[in-house]
Amino acid sequence: MANNIREENGDLADDSSNTVAWFITGAIIGATVAVLFAPKSGRETRQLIADTAQRGKDAVADGAENIADASRDMFERGRKLVEDAADLFDRGRKLVRG
Length: 98
What we know:
Strand content: under 5%
Number of strands: 0
Structural class: mainly alpha
Number of domains: 2
Helix content: over 70%
Largest sheet: none
Shape: elongated
Number of helices: 2
Mean pLDDT: 80
Low-confidence stretches: none
């Protein structure tokens, strides 16, 4: 009985993943057909694709630059915290030694 329930749950999971995969495949095919049969000329469509790709590339570059800046800032703050902790440790050690 328990094995039958597990098999049914496994079948449902397989059906769900297949449905999602087919949906995504259909969406990609639909988008491709829409671009190919767009009311614009081939040159305009290629230019639209090139402009969109360039905007995407610029957005990724800006995002990477922002991440790099944030990482440098976090590193500097972490380094400052470590230096402050080391200073406090040295001061505490000196107080204990007298």
